[in-house]
Amino acid sequence: MGFKPDLTRHDVTPKGLYLNRRQIMAGAGGLALAGLGGRRAMAQDLEPNTLEEISGYNNYYEFGTGKDDPAKYAHMLTTSPWSIEVGGMVDKPGDYSMEDILSGVDIEERIYRFRCVEAWSMVIPWNGFELNQLLEQVGVQSGAKYVAFETAYRPDEMPGVKFPVVEWPYVEGLRLDEAMHPLTIMATGIYGEPIPNQNGAPIRLVVPWKYGFKSIKSIVKITLVDEEPPTTWNKANAREYGFYSNVNPTVDHPRWSQATERVIGGGIFAARKDTLMFNGYEDQVASLYEGMDLSENY
Amino acid sequence: MTPVAQTINGWTRKVPAWPLYILAVIPPALLFYKGVVGTLGIDPVKEMEHQIGLYGLQVLIATMCVTPLRRFTGINLIKYRRALGLITFFYITCHLSVWLFLDVQIWSQIWADIVKRPYITIGMGAFILMIPLAVTSNNWSIRKLRKNWTKLHKLIYPAVLLGGIHFLLLRKGIQLEPLIYLTIIVVLLVLRLPPIAQRRTARA
């Protein structure tokens, strides 16, 4: 693939430093920038969040609706062994173990902006592989137009599923071209370590130009289909959550503005930041939606 | 009246209401302090905003419990009711201030939110209904307004209902905690419906 992300591994704070990054960044900033001549201007003010922030502030309703519930309860989830049932319009359907999947893909680091539909944001240094690699491995048949994903549903390990906050199991979907896009990854790690359970271990989707809830966690099932698959938040409230859910500062959520976001980690007096079209990935993904009315297809 | 109620009423005769005003400052002061030093979790602004809003709703519910408590159990906490009402207003004012100055920050967006977002419109409505109540929570106003004072203070009923709905609507999906609060609020309101309120009074 000719794709080059605008953030590279040089944007990640070295592992030894990230736990007390804030003390170190001030001094190291000048040094770090000196080594990053080719970086795009927009990327320069991006600073990955700490692991504590990334793994301590999550929406993963299977473990409770509080932002700290996933960190408290997600350890209950058994993540090994793990397999994904791949089916639908593929040449090689079947149960793919994590080992099968990881043997056929290239893991790399991707530092992405992460924008929640609730108007907060982080920057996360993921480790993962492009979803298109997995899809090529299983052989997508010509009639397939969408990819449907499903999260594990385990009442014994997920205390939150007792409450019908949304319909379980959690399901999500992408159009095939979105799924094949080089920015779309399956993440298995953060900061070079295995992904914490509360962030969607052992394997999750990351679609950086869409609101966070599209990036479905702890995936157990992937199905290639020819019709738009149902998605959890759209089923729960179609007026508020569309199938596309692209980050778009000009299309507000019915209950709040999407024009700006609170950057997690800035402290209580931090200013809000303007939300970027497609979360800052407009150059790479806008062509996918050419000719579509984005206020209709929100 | 039960012996328990008599004992409690005996105590309350000795305990004045004014210390409540001083104690009430502690929770928001603590929240603000923790926010500044960075021990309020990963999203301190939301934590502060939600926690102080929840305190406000809790104290408002406590305020609403005073009358039914006296009616059904004989426990008389009426001398603390004004303090509870004013503390509610103080907390909700803090809640609104955090939202205005630390959360949204942008005045054009604040106005757009108030007009366009039902849960914010509802929350602002509840706050506005409480302003005349806070302003008239003093002996001078009670004397001046006479019967109208009681009428005016019935505004607390729509205010608490709007507060409960505001809490329910701001969560993603239908969640348990705000439903519990809303249920308590509805029960407290139903207890004030003439058939129930009058029947119990007649029997007592």
Q: Could you describe the 3D structure shown?
A:
The complex is a heterodimer of chains A (298) and B (204). Helices cover 19% and strands 21% of the residues of chain A. Chain A has 298 residues and is of the alpha+beta class. In chain A, the strands form 2 sheets. In chain A, strands 3, 4, 7, 8, 9, 11 and 12 form a 7-stranded mixed β-sheet that branches. Chain A has a 5-stranded mixed β-sheet with strand order 2-1-10-5-6. Chain A is globular and about 50 Å long. The relative contact order of chain A is 0.16. Chain B has one domain. Chain B starts with a helix and ends with a helix. Classes of the chains: A alpha+beta (298), B mainly alpha (204). Chains A and B meet through helix 3 of A and helix 3, helix 4, helix 5 and helix 6 of B.
Number of helices of chain A: 9
Structural Rg of chain B: 18 Å
- The average pLDDT of chain B is 92
Biggest β-sheet strands, sense, barrel of chain A? 7 strands, mixed
Order of helices and strands of chain B: HHHHHHHHHHH
Termini separation of chain B comes to 10 Å
SSE blueprint:
The complex is a heterodimer of chains A (298) and B (204).
Chain A: H1 15-18, H2 21-34, H3 51-56, H4 69-73, E1 83-88, E2 94-97, H5 98-103, E3 108-115, E4 120-130, H6 131-138, E5 146-151, E6 171-175, H7 176-180, E7 185-190, E8 193-194, E9 204-206, E10 219-225, H8 232-236, E11 260-263, E12 273-274, H9 282-285
Parallel strand pairs in A: 1-10, 4-11
Antiparallel strand pairs in A: 1-2, 3-4, 4-7, 5-6, 5-10, 7-8, 7-9, 11-12
Chain B: H1 3-14, H2 18-37, H3 44-73, H4 81-104, H5 107-116, H6 118-135, H7 139-145, H8 147-152, H9 156-170, H10 176-190, H11 194-203
